[in-house]
Specification:
single chain, mainly alpha, 3 strands
Length: 114
C-alpha cells in the first residue's frame, strides 16, 4: 500500500478509536453518582440499594477519628492486605453471611469495598 493510501485509513482508524474511547468514558463515568455531603446527616442515593444510607467522607473521617464505628472491609484478602483503613475488620463479601456473628449489632458498622 502506498503512503498516500495509508493516510486515510489511519485517519479513519484513529477517529474510530477516539469515538470508542469517548463512549467508554461516558458510560463509565456518567453512571456513577458522586456524593459529596459535608453535613452530619446520612445520605440516601438512588442506586442498587437506595434504602441503605450512605455516609459522607467527612462524617466517616470524623467517626473514624473518634472510634465511633466499626469499619468493615468487604473486599478480598489480597485487596485488604494491599491497603485498608487502619483498624478495619476484614470479612470478604462472600463470607459475610457466615461471619455476621463476629460483628456486634450494637456498633455502627460502616462497610466499604473500594
Amino acid at each position: 500500500m502506498s503512503q498516500n493510501r495509508k493516510f486515510p485509513f489511519i485517519l479513519i482508524l484513529g477517529g474510530l478509536l477516539l469515538i470508542v474511547g469517548a463512549l467508554a468514558w461516558f458510560l463509565l463515568f456518567n453512571n456513577t453518582q458522586a456524593v459529596q455531603d459535608t453535613s452530619t446527616e446520612l445520605v440516601f442515593i438512588s442506586g442498587p440499594y437506595p434504602e441503605i444510607p450512605r455516609v459522607s467522607l467527612v462524617d466517616a473521617k470524623s467517626v473514624h477519628e473518634n472510634k465511633g464505628a466499626v469499619f468493615l472491609d468487604v473486599r478480598g484478602d489480597e485487596a485488604y492486605t494491599i491497603s485498608h483503613i487502619p483498624g478495619a475488620v476484614s470479612i470478604d463479601e462472600d463470607e459475610l453471611k457466615l461471619r455476621l456473628n463476629e460483628l456486634s449489632p450494637a456498633n455502627w458498622i460502616i462497610t466499604y469495598c473500594s
